[in-house]
Inverse folding.
């Protein structure tokens, strides 16, 4: 039994060492994914702004065409005025010239405000492109660094876990199951205690139970948090 408890302590030590790598092995790819997500958001914003710019450019072209049609209409109306034979015709021609001029003015204003919109959209598009370029560059750098770091972490994790199977083989399958169950929910399967307190949940152990733990003749759970308790004097021999 004592050998089992010693093996259990060794196992816990290995798993704890590996767990420190595990958290970074998990967090690092998540951080890179987050950065990739941010770049994707920028890319989507950029696509939206490109569409807005294209729409404004198309509208400006349409309005410019209308403007040139109105210019032709104005010239025709003026010519008609010059050929008028009576006051009624002069009046009608003048009204047409005025109306056409008003339309031209409206179209010109519209084209001018579209020009402004296109200018500012082009500038914000350039800014977004710059931001995206930076984000992509940072992503590539971070990704390369993360890959190196992950390889290093995996290598070191393998080192601390070397021989784990042999150690696990010294623990009964029943105890192993309890250990793994605790480990999957609490992050650790056993605690090594120095006094009568469970170092996982801080419970002060009943005196009789503490005596049993000190004897190291069987595996004992904490009555409160159910973690396996080992006494340092038992496992460090
Ligand atoms: Zn406890």
């Amino acid at each position: 039994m004592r050998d089992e408890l010693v093996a259990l302590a060794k196992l816990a030590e290995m798993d704890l060492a590996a767990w420190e790598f595990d958290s970074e092995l998990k967090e690092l790819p998540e951080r890179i994914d987050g950065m990739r997500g941010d770049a994707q958001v920028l890319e989507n914003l950029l696509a939206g702004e490109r569409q807005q710019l294209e729409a404004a450019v198309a509208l400006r072209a349409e309005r410019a065409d209308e403007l040139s049609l109105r210019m032709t209409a104005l010239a025709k109306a003026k010519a008609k005025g010059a050929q008028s034979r009576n006051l009624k015709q002069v009046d009608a021609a003048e009204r047409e010239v005025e109306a056409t001029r008003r339309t031209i003015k409206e179209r010109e204003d519209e084209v001018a405000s579209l020009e402004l919109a296109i200018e500012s959209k082009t500038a914000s598009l350039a800014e977004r492109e710059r931001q995206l370029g930076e984000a992509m560059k940072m992503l590539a750098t971070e990704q390369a660094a993360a890959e190196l770091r992950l390889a290093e972490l995996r290598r070191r994790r393998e080192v601390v876990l070397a021989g784990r199977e042999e150690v696990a083989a010294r623990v009964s399958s029943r105890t192993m199951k309890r250990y793994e169950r605790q480990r999957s929910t609490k992050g650790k399967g056993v605690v090594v205690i120095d006094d009568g307190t469970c170092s996982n949940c801080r419970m002060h152990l009943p005196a009789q139970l503490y005596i049993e733990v000190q004897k190291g003749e069987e595996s004992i759970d904490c009555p409160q948090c159910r973690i396996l308790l080992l006494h340092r004097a038992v496992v460090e021999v």
Observations:
- The CA atoms of residues 30 and 40 lie 15 Å apart.
- The domain at 17-162 is CATH 1.10.287.1490 (Helix Hairpins).
- The chain has six helices and three strands.
- Helices lie at 2-82, 87-161, 164-169, 173-186, 207-215, 232-235.
